[in-house]
Write a structure and sequence with these properties.
The structure is a homodimer of 398-residue chains. By secondary structure, chain A is an alpha/beta fold. Chain A folds into two domains: 145 residues, Aspartate Aminotransferase, domain 1; 244 residues, Aspartate Aminotransferase, domain 2 (3-Layer(aba) Sandwich). Chain A has 14 helices and 14 strands. The radius of gyration of chain A is 21 Å and the shape is globular. The mean pLDDT of chain A is 96. Chains A and B meet through helix 3, helix 4, helix 6, helix 7 and helix 10 of A and helix 2, helix 3, helix 5, helix 6 and helix 9 of B.
Chain lengths: 398, 398
């Protein structure tokens, strides 16, 4: 037997994968997947776009494209990002095969085994996986309702050797914590960075999905709040504003970092799907993306309201959760002593699933939390599912 | 400045990239890109497929899919591969974001820095890039017209420590050498493998593109020629039989290897574009793929004939080239002492480009060769381009 590389000698499969069998049964009520509901996709809009694309443009969609992306899409997306206040000068934009690939590329060009990344706790599992894939060490800092804990962040940044090379944050509608960083917390993060030899990665997959117009300003990326005291790599995605099946994300990064990321991508998949990019370009420049996002904002806001109402109605005392202002997630905290894995065991038997908290914890400790996604579940099943989970929690309490 | 990881501290950009500026000028005659001509893509067929797909199937195409691929496509593709004689039992099939990603994944799960891969010389540049991306060492073995040199292969396999972990071969319509392995050479490769602790990777992106019906048997994969004395990972692609812009390749591998590759993919892009997979599935199961491939075989055969006729007409004595029986490439050998980079300098000035031989040589030595792709160039420009190159060679000779 040829030995696997050091990274694959002790393979772990993720807890989410183990739920897949249950999730695929039609009677299951799933709060597990962080994905849009199939019924919400802009299928007719994309049908019309494809039908009207000139033959020559379609041919370009069938062909290899530049590693950094389909030029008209890069150009339109740069304008889109500039309107968010993001710096475009001395920066390059690259289309990636999902924004997870952007995270993977940054980790790839910076991390040797044993290098440290400061992350939030809880943390997006794709972010954790990409760091671990490069044998990076996660140094995680707790979140509260306004963002990352600033004293904890300072300590994590100061600690060493080894000093951290990267700081990975998700300020908008955090997966799984559901929170959005306050403006003050964003500024506090920025104020910790001057003079440090670190690269910050700002993962912004959800910022379009604010529920109230008044929060439009709140989601302004940290990268856009002023001069960047350290290099900030900004990632985003079409997964939540068109559909994950197109596998389209992006990376906005200072030119020197992008050169390395582009080289890394060349040995991974050469270029991002051109056919997807041609479609996304037309969706963006025709204004249909803006109209669609306005529509899904309302849909997700309503689903989150239904879920919160059900939580208030059914959950026993001592269970707490956030009120999301956008995104896909509610993060639930159980009364002390309860283990969400035990709750899940009971709800699986009743056909209801969610993701346990320790999945998102680099230290694998947050047993008393779990993530509910309201994005995917049919509206009329949300209350039923919450009732089942509440019942299981009561069982565990007694 | 945060230091890049050890892999990116001395970045190199590929020679092909440097040609891109020239290649994009409309007056350029390019034999550089290993890609189909835009005019050959099955645009109308795919338009009809998209127009007729049921809404529910389209919604699936907008959504995340399983990491291993869209189940109906995996199933249909397994049947397609079984008809080539490939073993399906104890094997798994995974859809990858281009077949380059399949190569990247195998290298990722096997190679630690300094591990050795035996390759052909010349070798597909994507294969070289994927190995180098994992800091693997290439130990390359010359090709002749029937395939890899067997004495050289035996020596490379026996040499060590370190013993090679992987053997990477492209038996069908080699990129860039243009050759196809003879049946005897395939058997000779197999006969060298028993008892060795090695994994073979068989890259088969071009096997559908044989020019003569009589060669259908010749392209039977090594993996299909009998019991596999060592694990053989087999990779293929929709890039040449549908279009590279969909970024669809596949990996057929023994189950234990696939588990590691699937885990590796989870941290790179989570899943292969579902929208592309839904389209490819319909293209395959409707029989349109077979009809389309029959059509492009004739197109590439004619282009190769035109190129060979022009070579015979214009090239000075002492220049040699293969007669391709399929695929995209003619591999040209210059008279001793001539450097293809010098020839290219002259032809660039005249608006004609190709790729110099050392690009494909892990030892960066094959200065007296170059690759001509006939797949991309408009038919009516092929002879003109060859005439320019022949003139440049004459200039260099005198």
């Amino acid at each position: 037997m040829v030995e696997f590389s050091s990274n694959f000698r002790n393979m772990r499969s993720s807890a989410i994968r183990e739920l897949m069998g249950v999730a695929s049964r039609p009677e299951t009520i799933s709060f597990a997947g962080g994905m849009p509901n199939n019924g919400l996709f802009p299928v007719e809009e994309i049908d019309r776009i494809i039908a009207r694309l000139p033959r020559e443009v379609k041919q370009v969609g069938f062909q290899y494209g530049p590693t950094h992306g389909y030029p008209p899409l890069c150009s339109a997306l740069k304008d889109f990002l500039a309107r968010k206040g993001l710096p475009i000068e001395n920066h390059e934009l690259m289309m990636t095969t999902g924004s997870l690939q952007a995270l993977h590329l940054i980790d790839r060009v910076y991390l040797d085994p044993g290098d440290v990344v400061v992350t939030e706790n809880p943390c997006f599992i794709g972010g954790i996986a990409a760091i671990r894939a490069h044998q990076g060490i996660l140094r995680s800092v707790p979140l509260d309702e306004e963002g990352i804990d600033i004293a904890g962040l300072q300590e994590a940044l100061d600690q060493g050797p080894p000093r951290p090379k990267l700081l990975y944050l998700t300020p908008n509608f955090h997966n799984p914590a559901g929170i959005v960083y306050s403006r003050e917390r964003r500024q506090a993060v920025l104020s910790l960075l001057p003079g440090r030899d670190i690269v910050m990665v700002e993962d912004d997959a959800y910022s379009e999905l604010y529920f109230e117009e008044q929060d439009r300003e709140l989601v302004t990326p940290i990268k856009a709040l002023g001069p960047n005291p350290v290099p900030i790599c900004y990632t985003g995605s079409f997964s939540k504003i068109l559909g994950p099946g197109f596998r389209l994300g992006w990376l906005l990064a200072p030119t020197d970092i992008m050169k390395a990321c582009e080289l890394a991508k060349q040995s991974i998949d050469a270029c991002t799907p051109t056919f997807s990019q041609v479609i996304a370009h037309e969706f963006l420049v025709s204004g249909q993306l803006d109209r669609y996002v306005a529509f899904v904002r309302g849909e997700y806001a309503r689903r989150s309201r239904i879920m919160r109402e059900a939580l208030r109605e059914y959950m026993p005392e001592g269970v707490r959760w956030n009120r999301p202002r956008g995104g896909f997630y509610i993060w639930v905290q159980l009364p002390r002593g309860l283990d969400s894995a035990e709750v899940l065991q009971k709800t699986i038997a009743a056909g209801v699933i969610f993701v346990v908290g320790k999945t998102f914890d680099p230290e694998a400790r947050l047993n008393d939390r779990f993530r509910l996604a309201f994005s995917h579940t049919p509206e009329e099943k949300i209350a039923d599912g919450i009732r089942v989970i509440a019942g299981a929690i009561r069982d565990c309490l007694s």
